[in-house]
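Reply to dn_fold:

You asked what the input looked like. This is it:
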Amino acid sequence: MPSYAPNFTARVKVRYHAAGANHTQLWRCTQLGVAFIEADAAIAAIQDIYDLLSPIMFDDWSVLDVSVAQFASDIFLPHGTLTAVGTVTTVSMAASRKAQAVSFVGRSTAGQPAKFAQFGVDTGAFADVQAIDYRVSAGEDVTIDGVIAQLNSYTAGSEIVGSDGLPIVWKGYANTKPYDYWVKRVRNGG
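and this is what came back:
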């Protein structure tokens, strides 16, 4: 299977704050086109995902900025806005929650791997489920099921694509785990 350059597709970069830390997500979309119409479709798709995640996100979740880059370019230009609203209070949040993330995985229709991780999720909401295998499977959490269903609804319109520019078929589960980088940061007081 061929490898694709990081700039093989147009991209939407979202910088956000959640659970006391700043993070970046890179979403891939089809060509930006005239007036970035395709980027707007990708940003609307991301907003749909963020809206579904709201019930399990900490209340300090906020989008810092949104930028886009065209195919074959590494220059990101500010474009569009996103709203992130979390509902879980950070008042009693343990520092270790900063390291926790939920990742959604899939493959493009040609087989290229795809993944996105969301930090700032209150993984305690499904602690019993994830304790078994660090995975939230279909039917175990309504929010995760909703996100997966929404992600899979984008296969026809190609709002969000894989590294090869093709639609993604998302797996029927989400993985949960503490990310090593953030575990080290928490240990060092960061």
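The first strand starts at residue 10 and ends at 18.
Hope that clears it up.
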